[in-house]
Amino acid sequence: MAYPLLRLGGHAFNHSRSDAAEAEYDRLRGLARHEAAQRSQCFDRSRQAYEHGDGAGAHDYSQQGKRHAHSMEQYNRQASEYIFLENNADGRVPSDTIDLHGQYVSEAEEILEQRIRAAQAGGESHLHAIVGKGNHSANHVQKLKPRVEQVCRELGLHYTSEENAGRIYIDLRGGAAHPGGQHHAPSGQHHQQQHHHQQQQHQQQQQQQEDLIDKVVKRLFRKAESCCIVM
């Protein structure tokens, strides 16, 4: 997956960060940006070679560009995993909370969907998603929050902003979202039909959920040292 190369804000940590940890995160993102620039140059040269009738040269530059693209993706994935483990380490967030600080939008979407499916399969009733207030984003515009809300809508889940504007409460059982933790079932025939439809979708996705749980365990909750290997 190719991730957007725009950092969401000036702070990737939602706790008292260490200089070493932030330096490692910035190093990985910096390497990814460098590979992205190299990729673009190679693809430009490939296009130019093709336009001048140099098919072999165009192919060679294209292959180089693909290698740089692969390296870019690997560095971005390492940075994503590194910051996730830093922000979601034991004692930093409760077990019903996921902190998405420091993630690019597409990374946050992937991580959140996996976490939601794993939580549902584990019988959890709700999830708090920390998305930030956008204070450090360009023009103070929240980028993660709209995408998190979109993921919830696509999965048929109710959500609501919490008193802390940088957090979203997600009800994992299909009822109205009430941050107090109490579940309120939908009322009315329309809502009953909607709930029934969600149950059918849930049954159809059982095998997919099992695969996702496997992936979540391996990708999100591995030991911190496994994500710090530079490709």
Please describe what this structure looks like.
It is a single chain. The model is unreliable at 1-10, 182-193, 200-210 and 223-231 (pLDDT under 50). Strands 1-2-4-3 form a four-stranded mixed sheet, with helices on one face. It is elongated and about 65 Å long. It has six helices and four strands. It has 231 residues and is an alpha+beta fold. 54% of the residues lie in helices and 7% in strands.
Average of the residue pLDDT scores = 78
Secondary structure tally, helices: 6
Oligomer: single chain
Q: Bin the helical content.
A: 40-55%
Q: What strand order characterises the main sheet?
A: 1-2-4-3
Number of strands: 4
List the uncertain runs. 1-10, 182-193, 200-210, 223-231
Shape, per Cα inertia axes: elongated
Radius of gyration using CA atoms only = 21 Å
Q: Based on helices, strands and strand pairing, what is the structural class?
A: alpha+beta
Largest sheet: 4 strands, mixed
Share in β-strands: 5-15%
Measured between the Cα atoms of the first and last residue, the distance is: 16 Å
- Compressed to H and E, one letter per element, the order equals HHEHEHEEHH
